[in-house]
Amino acid sequence: MEMEFVCSSMRRSISKLVKCTILVVLWFSCFSFTSTEAYDPLDPNGNITIKWDIISWTPDGYVAVVTIFNFQQYRHIQAPGWTLGWTWAKKEVIWSMMGGQTTEQGDCSRFKGNIPHCCKKDPTVVDLLPGTPYNQQIANCCKGGVINSWVQDPANAASSFQLSVGAAGTTNKTVRVPKNFTLKAPGPGYTCGPAKIVKPTKFISADKRRVTQAMMTWNVTCTYSQFLSQKTPTCCVSLSSFYNDTIVPCPTCTCGCQNNITQPGSCVEGDSPYLASALSSSSKNSYTPLVQCTNHMCPIRVHWHVKLNYKEYWRVKITITNFNYRMNYTEWNLVVQHPNFDNLTQIFSFNYKSLTPYAAISKLCL
């Protein structure tokens, strides 16, 4: 993938270009952290909020709608989608679900009549796929777990499912909130806090003439950390310019080193006859990149090429190369931090949005 943009110089020479910090993100950050805190410095206020609304009571529990909101500026949840887990506070079961399903039913042998949808103490829920029958759908469901960011696509920044919970409390005083929420989107990287009871959500009817509200609502906030997602960088940046034939490549072993002797299968040559079998191998974690053998060993390489450098402006072409055989980045994002991006004058072949997480300290191009 290639793109170009032009920035006015503002008395900044191109020599300062190399000194600038270039941070690139394709659904994930390229930088690494020194701590395990779930924090994204490019989106310090971004988070994923899980809202749990009890909408009605049943003889032995309640019916709830759970909605996952992606309040991040640029980070999508890509295919194969989100996976949400928690631990019940008591001996709750899930009688039925719409718009989602648990991955395992668990041991329901104590039930002789109707069999619950899930009896596990720690259920794991996934979204249903597109094309699910209408009688199994609710609003904002059935997208295969894919959620776009709120800033870029608010209409598709939420995902919902409905569940009927049994063996639970039937009043606000007897219901217990679940514990130990986990979110994979689709792999690790998110840390979720405890559920907090908040004011009940209010719902406005389609004709906007009536307002109803949930019986009880609690929120769970999950934040992202690249370090928790992967301890090594996930991409690298190479540099070149029109006035010099030399290309500054990605540093050797940026994202790891070739080690097929002690770690067979750490990378695959592009023309290898074993590539197809490596991709279909069921023993491999599908979230772990299977990369082409290179000096840098990164799943993604971003090449920054200076095409023009005048006193009034400079022009750059960016080329993104995917070396990960296990992932197609169909809805990718590129985030670059540069002090001159507040003077961007022209762009080609991509959409741009300025992000300012720290006001005048940094400008981000998306």
From TrEMBL:
Cellular component GO terms held in the UniProt record: membrane
UniProt signal peptide: 1-38
GO BP terms, alphabetized: cellulose microfibril organization
Keyword Signal: yes
Span of domain COBRA C-terminal: 234-356
Alphabetized UniProt keyword annotations: Glycoprotein, Signal
InterPro entries documented for this protein: COB_C (IPR056900), COBRA_pln (IPR006918)
Family indicated by similarity: Belongs to the COBRA family.
Name the UniProt record assigns to this protein: COBRA C-terminal domain-containing protein
